[in-house]
Amino acid sequence: MTQTKRRRSAPTNGVILYEGPSAIDGKPIVAIATCLVHPSKNDKTGPMAQLIIMRSDMHPVDAINTGDDESICGSCRARKTNDNWCYVLVGKPISQVYRAYKDGKYPKGTTDDIIKSRWSFRHGTYGNPSAIPFELNKEIFAALESSRKSWTAYEHEWRTCDQGLAEFSMASCESIEDAQEAISMGWRPYLSCLPEEVELAKELGLLRCPYRLHDASTPQCSDCNMCSGNTSKVSAGIVAPVHGANYKVRNYVEMRERASLRVIQ
Ligand code: SF4
């Protein structure tokens, strides 16, 4: 872990929290806390600071195309070289952060920088929390808790990662069976499923994510606070219909059919 403190006259919008080997495959990665001053404009999440984890030695789009994104995404089925339905928009926003990183625009930082930000925190906007050392994850979440700051976190490698992450992070699940397995392992699932499966998931005890596109009366992640693992006051898992670009939703449906997982008609 290469964390160093540096004096800065004015708050910076992004800092490097980690540069070093991936906890997944040992390849070089970087974790950058961004939007610390100017929050993200994502309609669903609302204004949040965020953590972006990516390969430090290659452009994120190249990593996606070659499968080298395994260092930060693990074996996630949504990767392009697997079933290609990940909804993260890597093209522009993540590429911009990578370019700024390569241009030396981000100083080294610490979890203090997250605490000083006025915004709640989205861990792993891109990349799995488990890609960075577990000790750093513990530091990040301890800092968020001690400053009473809310966060969201989602982990795709929940079966194999340090199980201590279940305390702070949701288990990203792609089928009802996945969600049931995650629950049996002590995780709260965040289930992305087919729209017609939402009711069944609710019958099994999951809560529907309250956010609705274009409905300002529904909460955004920044004020909902239900996707913070087992620290949340809500013990039920969350379900939401798969979303994103049309071709990605199509790829998700095809993945489900290929995997012969249950599709409710
Ligand atoms: S349940 Fe709340 S925190 Fe989780 S995705 Fe939905 S709005 Fe965001």
Can you put this structure into words, describing what you see?
This protein has 265 residues and is an alpha/beta fold. It has one domain (15-258). Helices cover 28% and strands 18% of the residues. The chain has a nine-stranded mixed β-sheet, sandwiched between helices. A hairpin with a 6-residue loop joins strand 1 (15-21) and strand 2 (28-34). The protein is globular, with a radius of gyration of 18 Å. Bound molecules: iron/sulfur cluster. Iron/sulfur cluster binds at residues 152, 209-211, 219, 221, 224, 226-227, 238.
Task: Give short descriptive properties of this protein.
265 residues, alpha/beta, nine-stranded mixed β-sheet, 28% helix, globular, disordered N terminus, disordered C terminus, binds iron/sulfur cluster
